[in-house]
């Protein structure tokens, strides 16, 4: 048997399931593992345990939470190649991309350890109001309790760390429901936490189909916070079902980057090629739409296509590979159909567009009409749209003409135009002289409109996963 049978962590116990789900390598299509298909009863057990775990973590000294997080990061660093090859085996990431993700996960956990010590309150000057001269008070932060975390396939380790790390740092317990496509990295991460001495009831990992177990999880009265990263429709459904509880929603985008005539074209091409095709375009801040001032449009297209054709498609384990497979042949076929639909609507194919199984060539489309699905929705694949614009104002209007608003990029040498763009672009972040595909794990990360609610980033997640409590003393 070439594949392994994994267990899930429920209520502090590693357990099998009555039924299982298969995990496949998207490159070969081969089965690499089976994980338990959790039931509603498993969810109930996990929540009951997590309620106890929240009480345990609330009482843990902050230095102990910090130690656990630091020791977990150290364990991952010691077993670095295990985590790298786990990511490679179940996801789309090349070996270079997997290494980067493991490094980021270590950083995320170390940041969580550091920020656990900085969760501070503030004083309240009650005497600002007549009649309250004999009162003093302050605001402190209490852990929110049980956190439910639902994570996607595209960053199977670090996005999970972005939910577990802050939850533990803030004094909560957490139940993780990873993607059915990439659950193995989450299981390895849970092992690291237990090895570091995390009390078992604080963390559960339940593997299974979201359609069967997520409603029970998000609707449970004892779950006080739901953190979700994924598609808009699923996020909206979760919000409708969760009821009165705090949520954080990161729901994707179709991020634009604007190239003005005074920009450094070489830098703009390099950054937007990397930003469009990394992880086979399966990235919520991937460059999807590029708007280029028409005076430099032809030359930009020429250079962009030239650099795109240099990218090597191949095996994930090959050090020279730039682009691996998409997460499944089904997803690659969907994106291929979107490309064909755009072409039938009048778009021009500059390069790419061919698919073999789950592999899809990096694709550059030009003159894509606004009516095309690939212009309006998040493609989540290795496709970029490059359209000409006649002015800065038109570029801003087209960039904003989307129901999404996660991140945007702008290339210009004009400080005045940079600040105008910052003011006018309706996005959660604006990157100047860079593509939309920029993130560090300490920054507040999130968007506006249909791109989500709230902000991730370690410090900001910790704050969201706590409740402010006002304390007042009346003095005699």
From TrEMBL:
<dbReference type="InterPro" id="IPR016161">
    <property type="entry name" value="Ald_DH/histidinol_DH"/>
</dbReference>
<protein>
    <submittedName>
        <fullName>Aldehyde dehydrogenase family protein</fullName>
    </submittedName>
</protein>
<keyword id="KW-0560">Oxidoreductase</keyword>
<feature type="domain" description="Aldehyde dehydrogenase">
    <location>
        <begin position="17"/>
        <end position="471"/>
    </location>
</feature>
<dbReference type="InterPro" id="IPR051020">
    <property type="entry name" value="ALDH-related_metabolic_enz"/>
</dbReference>
<dbReference type="GO" id="GO:0008911">
    <property type="term" value="F:lactaldehyde dehydrogenase (NAD+) activity"/>
</dbReference>
<dbReference type="Pfam" id="PF00171">
    <property type="entry name" value="Aldedh"/>
</dbReference>
<dbReference type="InterPro" id="IPR016162">
    <property type="entry name" value="Ald_DH_N"/>
</dbReference>
<dbReference type="InterPro" id="IPR016163">
    <property type="entry name" value="Ald_DH_C"/>
</dbReference>
<comment type="similarity">
    <text>Belongs to the aldehyde dehydrogenase family.</text>
</comment>
<dbReference type="InterPro" id="IPR015590">
    <property type="entry name" value="Aldehyde_DH_dom"/>
</dbReference>
